[in-house]
Amino acid sequence: MTAAAATPHGGIPTALNTKYHRAALNGFLVVVLAHWAEHLVQAYQIWVMGWPRPAARGLLGQVFPWLVSSEWLHYGYALVMMVMLFLLRPGFTGRARTWWTVAAAIQFWHHIEHLLLLVQAQSGHNLFGRPVPTSVAQLVFERVELHLFYNSVVFIPMVIGMYFHLRPNQTERRAMACGCAGPLASPAASAATP
C-alpha cells in the first residue's frame, strides 16, 4: 500500500479510493447495471414487443411515467455517473486508470449532452429548431439508440478498467492504495505456484 492508504485524515475521497474502494466500486456498479437494465427493457419493448417509442418506458417508467420525461432525472444520473467516475479514479493505477479515464472522459461529454437537454427543457427554447429538447448527437441518432450507444461506450472501458484493476500486474499492484486485487503474494509463495 502507498502512503495515501496510511493517511488517517485524507477525508472521504481518500477513504473511497483506499479502504472502501471495493465497496464503492461495487455500489457504483449496482447503480450502473440497474440503469442498463432500464435501457435494455426499453429496447426490448421497442424492437421485440413492437411498442411505440412513447409507450416504451422501461420498468420504472411503466409505474412512474414522469421519470422517462424528467430531464432532471436524466441529468442527475449523468452527473452522478460523471462524479463517481472522477471520484473513484485515484484508486486505479496503470492500465486500469487509462481505461477508467477513457470512460470518465466520454461520460463528461454525455453529461454535457444531458445538460443541453435540461437547459432546453427548463427554458422552453429548443436548439436546432427542433420541437423537443435535442442534444448535439440527436441530430444524427434517435434518442433511444443514442442512449444505448452512450451507455455502451462508457460502460465498456469502465468494465475493462475494473478488470485490470482486479488483475493488476506487479508494477500496478505495488502502486495500488486499495485492497481490491487481494493481498500481495509473498515471493516464496509466487515461486511455489505452478
Give the integer mean of the pLDDT values. 90
Order of helices and strands: HHHHHHHHHH
Helix content: 55-70%
Number of domains: 1
Q: Ranges with pLDDT <50 over ≥5 residues?
A: 1-7
Q: So what's the overall shape?
A: elongated
Describe this structure in words.
The chain has 194 residues and is mainly alpha-helical. It has one domain (3-178). It is built from ten helices and no strands. The chain has helices at residues 3-6, 11-17, 21-47, 60-63, 66-69, 71-88, 94-123, 143-166, 170-175, 187-192. The longest helix is centred in the middle third of the chain and has 30 residues, at 94-123. The chain is elongated and about 60 Å long. The chain starts with a helix and ends with a helix. Mean pLDDT is 90; it is low at 1-7.
Topology (SSEs and partners):
Elements: H1 3-6, H2 11-17, H3 21-47, H4 60-63, H5 66-69, H6 71-88, H7 94-123, H8 143-166, H9 170-175, H10 187-192
Characteristic terms for this protein:
single chain, 67% helix, disordered N terminus, 194 residues, mainly alpha
Give a short overview:
The chain is mainly α and about 190 residues long. It is built from 10 helices and no strands. Helix content is about 65%, strand content about 0%.
